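User: Hi! Is it possible to get a structure for several chains at once, not just one? Here's what I have:
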Amino acid sequence: MKKTIDINLGGLLFHLDEDAYAQLSNYLEALRRHLAATEGREEVLSDIEARIAEIFTQRMAGTRQVVSTDDVQAAMNTLGQPKDFAGEPAEEPAAASATEAPRRRLYRDPEEQMIGGVCSGFASYFDVDVVIVRILFVVLGLFTGFGVVLYIILWAATPEAVTPAERLAMQGKPATFENIRQTVEEEFKSVEARLKDKENHRKVRRAARSIGDVISSILTGFARFLGGLFLMLAFFVGSAILVAVFGTGITIDGSSISVTELMGVFLPAGFGPIYFWTATVLVLMGPLVAMVLLALRLLFRQHGAVHRGVMGAALMLSIVGIALMGVLGTRMASEFREEATVVHVETLPQGVTEWKLGMVSSPIEGGAELRFNDEDTHETSWILTDEGVFFDGVKLDVRPTFREQASLEWTAEAQGGSLRSARERADAVRFQVRTDSTGVIRADDLLVYPRSDRFRDQNVRLVLYLPVGHRVYLDPTTVPYLDDVANTEDIWDGEMGGKIWLMTEQGLAEFK
Amino acid sequence: MRKGVLELCVLRVLGRGEAYASDLSEALRQADLLVVEGTLYPLLTRMKNAGWLDYRWEESKSGPPRKYYQLTETGRILLEALNSEWTAFVDAVNSLKNS
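Assistant: Yes, the chains can be modeled jointly so their relative placement is included. Here is the combined structure:
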């Protein structure tokens, strides 16, 4: 089975098999070069193309459909090689060799391959020893893992040099600055040939040539620079993903918990970190492959049907990734549908009217910590240990009561997919408050819940209810936990620590 | 010189009537004057641009439309001139051989 390529020759459509196509385009390219200095080149070329079309039509005789290398050979025999064209001097000696050495292209080399022939193809493109390229890839693979991914993308995107024409192109004239310039200049000439204005013809030609030189060198440099940039970008993105998935994991700044570990405690049951990373990698696949292909295009001017196939596949993967993310997101949202609270009442000593409220930090052995700054005062952190998840989601409040006695309550809150699961989570939240007979209240600065409950917005609100006439000293340790404590002077929470407060008929007031 | 001779040959073939590039190459090849057909296309275009030849399109059953070339008035005058020049040239060369 061979692929065919459709071409338009002299206004007629032909199906060429790949080898025939390579051979014909090399031939036409050689002619184009040979005739570079000839006046009316475009016309001559289109006459020749029309003649080739006629030869093909006659040879096909309405029975065959695909033009083969034999047909191309026959056309070439009739028309002759450029070097045999009598009387029409070749433009320059180099042009004569154009038939033997087509422009060099990046291929995979199946005859030198270890895995897919990618390295040997590169070696042949850059004229370096294949061992050097292999070592480079192995080093890339070992250090970041992206070498492996890059290899696979290149494997898929780079065509294999199977036919003689392709093997020739693989070892062809190197893509030096000189022949890139030549290509661009030829482009300019054909554009220029279409300019009808005969008077300005010479001027235009001269101007186009010098402008062409400058523009082509700028564009070539820019294209290469961009290509390199895209490859670097793809390299960094790819490396980051791989390190996150297979390595120790990304950590959020200053924290010692990896995102992978965090995902395990955050994602809904049945959606592990593997699911999350698979979806992430799939989503990024499209942009990643696009970057590598763009780099290939800019660096090696390599493009074609294979690229479209690879790009299509990568796009499909991205779409699958987005779908997986969508499923995850929906499921995640559903786990926060219901909310439940459980109230715990602590016993306070009788007859005390002066209270002291402070927070105790409980030292936690081991465990990974996630820390991020929450607005201005409150630094929130999660600590994952084998015992469970410790979280400093504790809020403090002081409110008035009409009862004779002061009372202390803490309310655990949690969310879930159903009221029942929310309530079960709230029930599982543990929190400690210690009181003594002198009126000192010490509250833990962390609440704890089982890891299997996952992060479902579990938090605790501790409220001290004071009758009128009772006083409370708010220790400075309470400041980060105070939550909009109402007072007569509207003093901000941050200023309430280290002071004694008196419950009056009007509310809490500073006691001096 | 060969190039000049080839031009004269083309003019002579077209002097007999209009022709298509392939017919021309066939006629020239039969006279052992032309190696490959590709030589002809740049030549015809140049001669046309010089105003010696003209062409008309004709639809073809076996491929794209063909260009049928014919001599212009200038081409005809040039052919006459070249013909006599050629005869004189050949005579001169031959006379050297005989003496």
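Chain B has a mean pLDDT of 84. The longest helix of chain B spans residues 73-98.

User: Great, thank you!
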